[in-house]
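Worked Example 4.2. Consider the chain below.
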Amino acid sequence: MASVPAEAETRQRLLRTVKKEVKQIMEEAVTRKFVHEDSSHIISFCAAVEACVLHGLRRRAAGFLRSNKIAALFMKVGKSFPPAEDLSRKVQDLEQLIESARNQIQGLQENVRKLPKLPSLSPLAIKHLWIRTALFEKVLDKIVHYLVENS
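Applying the procedure from the previous section yields the following structure tokens:
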């Protein structure tokens, strides 16, 4: 079991990382007048938020439901928190669209024009799809606040 000072230091390190990523996003916004959704700073921010959220889960419930712990957590929260339920529906639809496009690409390599229009997502963007979507749907703060209040 981790000692209390080590636990507090880990939490502080995670929070410093999130603050650093937010600062970089703000600097990019000031410098470029916008932040593209595929910015490396957005991906880094999503990874930092995921690390913060998963920190408590690892300690309390190792192996939480399935391999994508964030998806499982958001779906579980969605049962009692409507913004998370809406987010779950949107992300699951997006995941289905991505999966069907992958299957079509594998099956119909020569017939590229019939593929549905997909947002171009990098592998890292797909890895953090739940947090990224929550961020762009402007519900990430509400879900995190709900988790903190109802942990």
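The mean pLDDT is 83. The helical segments are 4-32, 40-60, 69-78, 82-107, 123-127, 129-136, 140-149. Compare this with Example 4.1 before moving on.
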